[in-house]
Amino acid sequence: MTGIGWRPVMAIGHHGLVLGVGPDGSWCVIEAGAVRAPATGRNLMMLLPLLERPCAQVSAEVTDQVPGAFPGRMWDELLGHALGWPTDYWPGLALAWVEDGYPVERVQGAVAAFGADRRRAQPVRARVAALRAPLRMTSTGGQVRSRTARNGRNSWVSGPMASA
After folding, report:
1. Which of 15, 46, 54, 108 is the most buried (most CB within 10 A)?
2. HEC sequence for 77-125
3. In sequence order, which residues have a C-beta less than 8 Å from that of residue 74 and are 6 or more positions away?
4. pLDDT of residue 73
5. Comparing C-alpha atoms, which of 139, 134, 130, 129 is closest to residue 106?
6. 83 — phi, psi (to 5°)?
């Protein structure tokens, strides 16, 4: 994996890492102008600071930089990775993304596993219960629309989901 053809998309936190996209639509972490790692598996730890920003803001910046792009699997994996984190900080931020409109059906298994973990703080597990209770989602003809977000808008994605 070289830096040729890879395009920076957005800063990840404040440590010099950048989310990038390749000519084939794959996502990576760039550092000092060179590709450091693909944005998958254990490397997702480098992307966790993105969760400190609202999902609508991250989504808008990604689609502004890469029109028509939706790094679906990467976001799903990132939220799943965060929900499996041993402390409540990253899971809390992942839950905030779902509460604010990220399609819960895309990370349903990770959310359910997190909510069933009795070692987690009760207030955080209560947030999961609230997410899972009255989900008002529709799925028809390949279209997926998440429930209305906490802020009253569907702030992530409405329409066909890409899997890149």
Report:
1. 46
2. HHHHHHHCCCCCHHHHHHHHHHHCCCCHHHCHHHHHHHHHCCCCCHHHH
3. 27, 39, 40, 44, 47
4. 83
5. 139
6. -70, -20
74-88: burial string, b at 16+ Cβ within 10 Å, e else: bbbbbbbbbbebeeb
Q: Tokens 């000519």 sit at which residue?
A: 23
Token pair recorded at residue 40: 């998958």
Which DSSP helix (H) or strand (E) runs through 11? Answer: strand 7-12
Residues 120, 112 contacting (CB under 8 angstroms): no
C-alpha to C-alpha distance for 27 and 127, rounded to whole angstroms: 30
Can you list the residues of the chain whose pLDDT is less than 70? 1-4, 69-71, 133-164
Cβ–Cβ < 8 Å for 125, 32: no
pTM of the prediction?
0.77
Q: How far apart are CA 148 and CA 1, in angstroms?
A: 40
Residue 133: predicted pLDDT: 65
Amino acid at 113: A
What is the rounded distance in angstroms from the CA atom of residue 100 to the CA atom of residue 73? Answer: 19
